[in-house]
Amino acid sequence: MHIPYIILFVVPYLLVISFYITGWFRKPRPKAELTKSRPFISILVPIKDEAGNLQLLLNDLIGQRYPSDNFEIILIDDHSRDETQTILKEYLQHNFIKYLRLTDTTGKKAAIWEGIQQARGSLILTTDGDCRIPSGWIESMALYFEKFPGHLLIGPVFMNEGKGIFNHFQSLEFLSLIASGAGAAGIGRPILCNGANLGAPRDLFLKANAVYQSPVASGDDIFLLLELKRQHIPAVFVKENEAAVSTKNSQHFRQFFRQRTRWTFKSRFYRDPDIIIVALIVLFTNIFMLGLLFYSIIRPGMFVAFLSFYLLKCFVDYILLYNVAKFFKRSHLLKFFFIHQLMYIFYVSLVGIAGHFGGEHWKNRKV
């Protein structure tokens, strides 16, 4: 009786996650060390009102194991109104730290494009002003740059783990994004990346200049990935613990919800079949599960069908998340996996629908 529904809603999802599990194990990790002729690297950090975070980030970057003679840090200020410039004064004494300020343009894309124009490195890395960086980050990214020349480097990003079920949910959800992005890149069908930890040869950024001239305000990372993919340029996930960047979680549900709907809003501009198909499969699978759950209230006999589909989904999701969490030493995030999976059904359905209405808001700026 339920076979058509399984085929229509569940089987495609199971296949997608199974492919991602395969992709996670497919790409080999480089084991050799960097050559003595280390590449010169430019690190671009677009900032806007990050006075409360900049000191931690800059201390992390200054403390990198990579020789300071072989990299530069370029901070591009998008019209900050806080104490950013005051805080930066003590850091600008380092000759490898540069500060630029946008004048005629606004937005993160404009900031990154300005940084690209000024960058001297053969490899460009990007991160955000509120991130924390491990001491081996530059070295790990440089190693992949050498072993996978001409690739877009997709680095891992995790949430700072806080207390409470809301923070725990954010951390696990972000882990699922990293796992999916890594798996998709592993099978040669990349769909996700994060500008908080991204790298590519400078010439690839220049080839994707259309991304930074686009009227779409956000998406400096995902649209870069999709543009390079359109040009048949491969991407590789940087499968290294020391390459993992951490970023702040949302303190309030409203902030979290607006961020996720902002991410969803830009999906209307996607033209890549991989990302569109996967997004639709994930959305419709969760909407179907939600509908089946509510339907079982009217017809209790349908709860068995819901439970069967739910456990099947949990099974493949857990395999993928377990392997990624274990590698990055975050297995504790799976402690409340089954509860979070149930919350996820509501969350994806709500964000997937709400994200297609209204505009985007970011740091008191409507775009």
Describe this structure in words.
The chain has 367 residues and is an alpha/beta fold. It has 13 helices and eleven strands. It has a seven-stranded mixed sheet with strand order 3-2-1-4-7-5-8, with helices on both faces. A two-stranded parallel ribbon has the order 6-9. A two-stranded antiparallel ribbon has the order 10-11. Strand 1, helix 2 (54-62) and strand 2 form a beta-alpha-beta unit. Helix 1 (3-26) crosses helix 6 and helix 11 (273-298) crosses helix 13 (337-354). The longest helix is centred in the last third of the chain and has 26 residues, at 273-298. It is globular.
Layout of SSEs?
Layout lengths: L2 H24 L14 E7 L6 H9 L8 E7 L6 H5 L8 E5 L6 H11 L4 E4 L10 H11 L4 E3 L2 E3 L5 H22 L11 E4 H6 L1 H5 L8 H9 L4 E3 L7 E3 L5 H13 L7 H26 L4 H25 L9 H18 L6 E2 L2 E2 L1
Parallel strand pairs: 1-2, 1-4, 2-3, 5-8, 6-9
Antiparallel strand pairs: 4-7, 5-7, 10-11
Helix pairs in contact: 1-6, 1-11, 1-12, 6-12, 11-12, 11-13
Name the features:
11 strands, 50% helix, 367 residues, seven-stranded mixed sheet, alpha/beta, 13 helices, globular, two-stranded parallel ribbon
Summary, kept brief:
This protein has 367 residues and is of the alpha/beta class. It has helices at residues 3-26, 54-62, 84-88, 108-118, 137-147, 165-186, 202-207, 209-213, 222-230, 253-265, 273-298, 303-327, 337-354; strands at residues 41-47, 71-77, 97-101, 123-126, 152-154, 157-159, 198-201, 235-237, 245-247, 361-362, 365-366.
Distance between the termini: 48 Å
Tell how many strands the DSSP assignment holds: 11
Which percent band covers the strand fraction? 5-15%
What is the fold-level CATH name, i.e. the topology of the domain at 34-171 and 185-252? Spore Coat Polysaccharide Biosynthesis Protein SpsA, Chain A
The number of helical elements comes to 13
What is the CATH homology-level superfamily of the domain at 34-171 and 185-252?
Answer: Spore Coat Polysaccharide Biosynthesis Protein SpsA, Chain A
Main sheet: strand order: 3-2-1-4-7-5-8
* Structural class determined from secondary elements: alpha/beta
What shape does the CA trace take?
A: globular
According to CATH, what is the class of the domain at 34-171 and 185-252? Answer: Alpha Beta
**Mean model confidence by pLDDT:** 88
Profile the largest sheet: 7 strands, mixed
Secondary-structure element sequence? HEHEHEHEHEEHEHHHEEHHHHEE
- CATH architecture designation of the domain at 34-171 and 185-252: Alpha-Beta Complex
The Cα radius of gyration reads 21 Å
Helix content: 40-55%
Low-confidence stretches: none
